[in-house]
Amino acid sequence: MVLLDNINLKTFNTFGIQANAKGIIPIYNEINVFEVLAAQIRPLRILGGGSNILLTGDVNAYILKNEIKGIEIIDEDENQVLVQVGAGEKWHQFVLWALSQNLAGVENLSLIPGSVGAAPMQNIGAYGVEQESVFHCLKAIHLESGVRKVFFKDECKFGYRDSIFKTLVKDQYFITHVVYILKKKNYTVRTDYGAINDILAVKGITSPTIHQVSDAIIEIRKSKLPNPVEIGNAGSFFKNPVVPVEKFGTLLDKYKYIPSYPVSETEVKIPAGWLIEKAGFKGLKRNNIGVHHLQALVLVNYGDGNGKEIHQLAMEICQTVQNNFDIIIEPEVNIW
Ligand code: FAD
Ligand code: NAP
After folding, report:
1. Of 107, 156, 110, whose CA–CA distance to 135 is shortest?
2. 168, 183, 198 — which closes off a domain?
3. Which of 102, 122, 253, 274 has a CA between 20 and 30 Å from the CA of residue 88?
4. Based on the structure, what is the number of domains in the chain?
């Protein structure tokens, strides 16, 4: 076990926020976790790629930095494979691996930053697909008792950017491996979301392969989202609110062009980015922080921005949206 004392976390979070932790411990396998527990090192926090956290101050804990690697087919039949992935693998590397094997299921989740171990945490999703659609089970270690546990799909209570790992058992389990089911054949590709079909049409593609869908999504994402290497950010800072249809009806009377997507017969999703833009925050720059000029859902750190200031701005945005539209929007990002 390697323990690096008093570490600056600036390069460990995509917001690029300066903050110190008591120490950082790279975890290469399950044994490393048991060593930490046996040495009674406490308190502990778990970190993957740091692309979904906002540091609002120093972290009074030792960080377990997940570096567990490996992608292994553990079972297969003529239609599908079960793939076990080390939780410290980069998510997009896993997507690239699936594409290289002609395995379908994760192509719409191309180019999402972060680790495989964090994917079940908020049930990552993009372009109409969530990781739960390919999830089989995950392996985790309970940090209090050191007991190993396998969580199958039903137990994870996956929802929109949500799971029990973000709620009921938050910070209690270190996820070491995730097992996914990917399809060899008999699958359909999903292209009806966002600009995928437009991009494919421009290229004259009518029956896209998983590779072509992935390429289209990568192209859209690169054109719309700030690259954290250039401007610090954690992707969408807020979740899209879901409101009852009656409430949406009253908003429609006032805002004729309000975008919406049906969630069920009784509920409608409204893009939080639209609400934030209408509330006047899109492109806002305040000292070294702000709201991205192309995507109002993304809060940014232009340089030496401070996590507390970003958090305050986020709360101000929530309050203004609530005042203007009577809608509560919630952060998607984990506030540390
Ligand atoms: P971290 O930020 O390191 O951790 C996030 C949380 O998970 C923390 O609470 C941490 O303690 C916990 N955690 C991490 N690893 C483990 C583990 N092994 N065991 C237990 N708990 C763990 N998200 C989407 O859903 N869809 C998108 O399209 C998307 N696009 C993005 C685009 C950009 C440019 C950025 C910066 C972010 C985007 N995100 C998106 C958010 C983010 O990439 C995902 O939430 C990702 O899964 C976070 O992974 P991570 O390893 O960086 O997690
Ligand atoms: P977009 O295509 O401009 O669409 C704006 C919003 O409308 C999205 O948030 C999406 O909701 C919703 N939407 C669009 N088409 C939809 C459809 N056909 N059915 C239902 N809802 C629809 O969004 P974007 O910002 O460029 O992002 C594209 C995708 O990548 C989205 O799925 C988004 O969630 C994902 N993404 C996520 C993050 C993150 O950090 N979480 C960052 C970047 C991109 P949903 O968000 O619910 O899908």
Report:
1. 156
2. 183
3. 102
4. 3
